[in-house]
C-alpha cells in the first residue's frame, strides 16, 4: 500500500497523473508564476511513450491504426508549432499579469481549493468557445484545420497543431485576468492541454458513466469525424458538459471516418499549415467580401443558408491519402526524424544557454529537414535533391570549427556520429540517383 502511494506521488507517477488531470489543488497551486512548473515540456517523454506504445500495439496486431507517414507529419506539425514559443512565450503571460495587476475586479486566493476548481471550469469553458469559433469562422479555422487534417486518429494526431493557433487563443482567456491569479491560470491552461492528448485514440472505446461528464476518446472521435453526423460537434476540452449545455453534443454512432471534408492529400508539413490560406485567397479573388471570407464558416457559400451546407456522405471503408514509399525508405526517414527530434528537444531545454545564432541555425536545419521528410513521403520528384542538400549541409557544418561550440550541448557520442550518419546518407542518395535514375515520380495514388 505504501509502495503504491509512493509510486503515485513519485516524479513519474505525477507526470502520468497530470495527463488525466488526476492532481490535487494542494500539489498544483503556486503563489508566483515563476514557481509554476513547465508541465507541457515535462510531458514530452510521456507523449513519446504513448505514441510509441500505441504504434507498437498497432503494428503487432496489424491494426493499421498508425502509419509512419501520417504520424511523422503530425509530430512535425507539433514541432513547428512549438518553435515560435521559444522566442515569444512570455508575451501573452506578461499582458495577462499586467491586466491582473491593474484591473482585477476581485482578488481570489491563490491557495484556495475553490479558486483552483473555479479556474478549472473557466479555462475549460473558455476553451469550449475558442474551439467552437475555431470551427465556425474561417480565419480561426485556417489555423485549427491543421489539427483535423490527419486521416488517422491516434496519439500522434494530438500533436498535429498549427503554428498560428497559439496567437488566436489568447483573446478567449484574457477576461480571466480580471479575477484569476496568473499562476493558477498557467497551471490549468497546461493541465487542460495535457488532458486532451490521451483522448486521441481508437483503442479506448467507452469509459462508462464518465462519458456523461468528461470529454473522452469516444466523444473526441466524433469531433474528428467527417461523417455528416460528426460535423461541428463536441468542442469540449476536458469536460463534455458545455456541449450538452449549448447544444453541440453528439454521441458516437456509426463508424467515424477521420479527417477533413476536403482532404489535403499531402504529408508536407508546411503545405498542411498554409493550404487553407490558399483557399481563402481564391475565395477573395472571386470577388467575395474580405469580411465574409474571413468571418463566415468554412462551409459558407454566398446566398446559401448555412444550415443547408451539404456535407458529402463518407465511404466505407475509408479511402486515405497514401503513397508507395518502401518500408526501407520509411525506416530511413524514421531514423532521421529521431535525430531531428533529439536536436529539437535539446534546443527546447538549453536554448537560453546557447548563442542565439546557433539556436537559429539548428532551427533552420530542423525546419528544412521536416519539409524534406514530407516531400519524400509525398514522392515529389525533387525530394532526392533536397535530401542530398540536407545531408551534405549537415556533413559540412559538422566539420566547421564553431560546430564544436554547439556540440557542448549534445551528447558526445552522438556528435561524433553526426558526420558519418549524414555522410553515408548523402552517399546513398547520390548512388540511388546515379544508378536508379530519377525514378521518383510524382505519385498521388489513393488506395483503400
Ligand atoms: Zn477541433
Ligand atoms: Zn483533437
TrEMBL record:
GO terms for cellular component: endoplasmic reticulum membrane. Keywords: Endoplasmic reticulum, Iron, Lipid metabolism, Membrane, Oxidoreductase, Transmembrane, Transmembrane helix. The chain crosses the membrane at residues 43-62, 74-93, 113-130, 329-353, 359-376, 418-436. One of its GO terms (biological process) is lipid biosynthetic process. It catalyses: 1-O-(1,2-saturated-alkyl)-sn-glycerol + (6R)-L-erythro-5,6,7,8-tetrahydrobiopterin + O2 = a 1-(1-hydroxyalkyl)-sn-glycerol + (6R)-L-erythro-6,7-dihydrobiopterin + H2O. GO terms for molecular function: glyceryl-ether monooxygenase activity; iron ion binding. Its main location: endoplasmic reticulum. The keyword Transmembrane helix applies. It is a multi-pass membrane protein. It is an enzyme of class 1 (oxidoreductase). InterPro entries: AGMP_C, Fatty_acid_hydroxylase, Sterol_desaturase/TMEM195. Residues 330-405 form the Alkylglycerol monooxygenase C-terminal domain. Residues 116-248 form the Fatty acid hydroxylase domain. Belongs to the sterol desaturase family. TMEM195 subfamily. This is Alkylglycerol monooxygenase. The lineage of its organism: Eukaryota, Metazoa, Spiralia, Lophotrochozoa, Mollusca.
Amino acid at each position: 500500500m505504501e509502495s503504491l502511494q509512493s509510486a503515485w506521488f513519485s516524479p513519474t507517477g505525477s507526470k502520468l497523473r497530470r495527463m488525466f488531470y488526476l492532481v490535487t489543488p494542494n500539489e498544483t497551486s503556486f503563489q508566483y508564476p515563476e514557481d509554476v512548473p513547465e508541465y507541457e515540456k515535462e510531458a514530452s517523454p510521456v507523449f513519446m511513450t504513448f505514441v510509441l506504445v500505441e504504434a507498437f500495439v498497432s503494428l503487432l496486431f496489424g491494426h493499421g491504426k498508425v502509419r509512419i507517414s501520417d504520424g511523422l507529419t503530425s509530430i512535425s506539425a507539433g514541432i513547428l508549432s512549438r518553435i515560435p514559443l521559444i522566442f515569444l512565450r512570455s508575451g501573452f503571460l506578461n499582458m495577462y499579469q499586467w491586466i491582473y495587476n491593474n484591473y482585477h475586479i476581485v482578488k481570489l486566493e491563490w491557495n484556495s481549493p475553490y479558486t483552483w476548481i473555479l479556474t478549472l471550469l473557466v479555462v475549460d469553458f473558455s476553451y469550449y468557445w475558442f474551439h467552437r469559433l475555431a470551427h465556425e469562422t474561417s480565419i480561426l479555422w485556417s489555423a485549427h484545420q491543421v489539427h483535423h487534417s490527419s486521416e488517422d486518429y491516434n496519439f500522434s494526431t494530438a500533436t498535429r497543431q498549427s503554428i498560428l493557433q497559439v496567437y488566436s487563443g489568447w483573446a478567449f482567456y484574457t477576461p480571466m485576468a480580471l479575477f484569476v491569479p496568473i499562476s493558477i491560470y498557467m497551471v490549468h491552461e497546461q493541465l487542460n492541454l495535457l488532458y486532451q492528448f490521451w483522448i486521441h485514440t481508437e483503442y479506448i472505446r467507452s469509459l462508462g458513466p464518465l462519458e456523461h461528464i468528461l470529454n473522452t476518446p469516444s466523444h473526441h472521435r466524433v469531433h474528428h469525424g467527417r461523417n455528416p453526423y460528426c460535423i461541428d460537434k463536441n468542442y469540449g476540452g476536458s469536460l463534455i458538459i458545455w456541449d450538452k449545455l449549448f447544444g453541440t453534443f453528439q454521441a458516437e454512432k456509426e463508424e467515424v471516418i477521420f479527417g477533413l471534408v476536403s482532404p489535403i492529400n499531402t504529408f508536407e508539413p508546411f503545405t498542411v499549415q498554409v493550404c487553407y490560406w490558399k483557399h481563402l485567397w481564391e475565395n477573395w479573388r472571386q470577388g467575395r467580401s474580405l469580411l465574409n471570407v474571413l468571418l463566415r464558416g468554412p462551409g459558407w457559400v454566398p446566398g446559401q443558408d448555412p444550415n443547408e451546407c451539404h456535407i458529402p456522405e463518407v465511404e466505407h471503408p475509408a479511402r486515405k491519402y497514401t503513397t508507395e514509399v518502401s518500408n526501407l525508405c520509411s525506416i530511413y526517414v524514421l531514423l532521421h526524424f529521431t535525430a531531428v527530434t533529439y536536436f529539437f528537444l535539446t534546443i527546447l531545454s538549453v536554448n537560453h544557454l546557447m548563442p542565439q545564432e546557433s539556436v537559429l541555425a539548428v532551427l533552420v536545419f530542423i525546419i528544412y529537414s521536416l519539409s524534406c521528410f514530407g516531400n519524400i513521403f509525398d514522392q515529389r520528384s525533387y525530394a532526392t535533391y533536397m535530401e542530398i542538400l540536407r545531408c551534405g549541409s549537415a556533413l559540412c557544418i559538422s566539420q566547421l570549427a564553431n560546430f564544436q561550440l554547439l556540440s557542448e550541448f549534445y551528447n558526445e557520442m552522438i556528435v561524433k556520429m553526426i558526420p558519418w550518419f549524414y555522410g553515408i546518407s548523402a552517399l546513398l542518395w547520390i548512388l540511388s540517383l546515379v544508378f536508379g535514375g530519377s525514378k521518383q515520380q510524382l505519385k498521388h495514388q489513393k488506395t483503400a
